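Second attempt. The first submission of Fluoride-specific ion channel FluC had a stray character pasted in from the spreadsheet, which I only caught after the job came back as garbage. Lesson logged: always re-copy from the clean sequence file. Corrected sequence (119 aa) follows.
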Amino acid sequence: MSHALAVFLGGGLGALLRYGVGKWTLAWFGSGFPVGTLAVNVVGSLMIGLAIGALEGVGPTARLFFVTGLLGGFTTFSAFSLDTLTLWQRGEAATALAYVAASVVLSLAACAAGWMLTR
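This time the job returned cleanly.
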């Protein structure tokens, strides 16, 4: 299987899983708090940590399917978490903290800007 196909298939499955979690949490918890997004981000972060460890000796196609595709389609927050942890583990604590701050501030600003542009 090609790498691109592995990412494509995993991404489609991950997006379907995210959709399902969103529908399920909305039915169970209502719309007052974004439980679905929180659940996807936390579960995705746990899963990417497990996948990186469990898939260490596996070929690149399987890693691309699970990590880039499935978990990337499920939540990009898992990639953010892994990037931050990688920086931290390399001893780059200041860079990791700057990355967290920049990601949150710039993402919120971009979201607000996009929303305001449609008003």
